[in-house]
Specification:
The chain is mostly beta strands. It is 14% helix and 37% strand. It has a single domain, classed as Tumour Suppressor Smad4 (Sandwich), CATH 2.60.200. It is built from two helices and 13 strands. The mean pLDDT is 87. Pfam families: FHA (PF00498).
Amino acid sequence: MASGTFAQTILFAVLWVEEEPVEKVEPNFGLSGKLAAETNTVKGVELKYNEPPEAAKPSTKWRLYVFKGDEQVDLLHIHRQSSYLIGRDRVVVDIPVDHPSCSKQHAVLQYRIVTEEGANGKPVKVVKPFIIDLEATNGTFLNNEQIPATRFVELKAKDVLKFGSSTREYVLLHAE
């Protein structure tokens, strides 16, 4: 009787092992580790951000008007490339912000192709501006509201951006 119980235990164990699903691992040919870091390096500085596949240069002539208080201190034409890195590290950033509360790589203004409903009800592809905070210590603010880190937030004309606790305001407008 004892040997019959042992045989049943062995049979149960074999059946249990055979029924256990085997997870099929798909091959991943993407870059990883050191090679990925090297492909995302500019002038020896590793970038925190990679452009998404839907990145595109805009046809609209977007501009950032920079204000300190009531005075306009700069005008940035931001339609010549698909993304603009914002931060303190002048070696790699496209739009420098020198305030000490801003991170070296603080945020990215990214143009993306999105599909929306056209006037005739059919889907059309358009390029729109977005902002993404790169987990900056002191945050990125859109119209005085802090945006979530690592999430794209769509921008619209007349939106106001602020970085960290800097008092400079970046007003987004476009040429008509």
